[in-house]
Amino acid sequence: MARITIPTRDDAPAAAQAQLDQVAGKLGRVPNFFRVLATSPAVLAGYSSLAEGLARTLDLRTRERIALAVAEVNGCEYCLAAHSYTALNFAHLSPEEIAQARQGRASDPKAAAAVQFARQIALGRGKVSDVDLAGVREAGFEDAQIVEIVAVVAENFLTNLMNNVVGTDVDFPAIAEVRAA
Q1: Which end of the chain is more exposed for a tag (fewer CB within 10 A), N or C?
Q2: pLDDT at residue 159, as a whole number
Q3: Helix residue spans in the chain (DSSP H)
Q4: What is d(CA 3, CA 34) in angstroms, rounded to the nearest whole number?
Q5: 138: how many CB neighbours lie within 10 A of its CB?
Q6: DSSP-based three-state secondary structure for 12
Q7: pLDDT of residue 46
Q8: Tens of pLDDT along 138-153?
Q9: Residue 79's Cα: distance from chain center in Å?
Q10: Residues with Cβ within 8 Å of residue 130, at least 6 apart in sequence
Q11: How far, in Å, are 13, 29, 145 from residue 149 at the CA level?
């Protein structure tokens, strides 16, 4: 159960309602995470801007793999469920690929390098070795893409921290249900 009040769309601050409507327009509903952020319209706007910018970086499959690896490191039940769902239904990762991503692995060598590097960033709280950097570079990632991987990890840390602190009620299918889908 959530440890703060999660407002409905109508109970959210007026300054957040238009943004919640945009989320509903894109997703067909407003997940609890966005309603949590709506308690502070400034935080909702900041997160939305970050997420929108990062959506123009790495491909969706890579971003979802990173989200899964980071959620696993941070033990975020909400994000594991949400990103298992989105990885399966939007990024078209198989249940096996989702399980691999959670462990910082992938069968594709370039994807594996990205998700392994992202996991190391999360585990080390940004302190990675020269060997870690060399590995991601050897896989073909340039400096701009390395910066993007770091930013996607940071975006997911924000969501993991928020959901772990709040105890956001999971409103996505349970991970086992996603695997069965």
Answers
A1: N
A2: 98
A3: 14-27, 32-37, 41-54, 60-74, 77-89, 95-102, 109-123, 130-138, 143-166, 175-180
A4: 15
A5: 10
A6: coil
A7: 97
A8: 999 999 999 999 999 9
A9: 6
A10: none
A11: 33, 28, 6
